[in-house]
Design a protein that fits this description.
With 101 residues, the protein is α+β, with helices and mostly antiparallel strands. The protein has a single domain, classed as Alpha-Beta Plaits (2-Layer Sandwich), CATH 3.30.70.330. The protein contains 3 helices and 6 strands; from the N terminus they run αβαβαββββ. A 4-stranded antiparallel β-sheet has the order 1-2-6-3. A hairpin with a 6-residue loop joins strand 4 and strand 5. It is globular and about 55 Å long.
């Protein structure tokens, strides 16, 4: 288990059509550190965004995509990632970084 601080857990928000649709249900999607646990993601969201209370966290490991290398017939893979969908409670504040998107 890696010693990960809360500010290292959340890498960036995921901005897609589907994740924007989930915002109406107070669900926010983030790319997180590959070794982060659900409890670490919950702690990071509550500390980084004031007034938020996390109800649940769902995580998924995403395999790297297969890519062609230098136009030849050899292939490589992109890095593995981890995605987390965070469900906030009803009385929680919204996350401001998604406002206006």
């Amino acid at each position: 288990m890696a010693n990960i601080q809360y500010y290292d857990v959340i890498l960036k928000p995921v901005v897609t059509e589907k994740s924007m649709g989930l915002m109406g249900e107070k669900k926010y999607t983030f790319l997180v550190h590959p070794e982060a646990t659900k409890s670490q993601v919950k702690e990071a969201v509550e500390k980084m965004f004031e007034g938020t209370k996390v109800a649940s966290v769902n995580t998924m490991n995403l395999e790297g995509k297969k890519k062609r290398v230098r136009g030849t017939f050899s292939y490589g893979k992109t890095a593995k990632t981890k995605k987390a969908i965070v469900q906030l409670t009803e009385d929680s504040k919204d996350i401001e970084i998604f406002e206006g998107l």
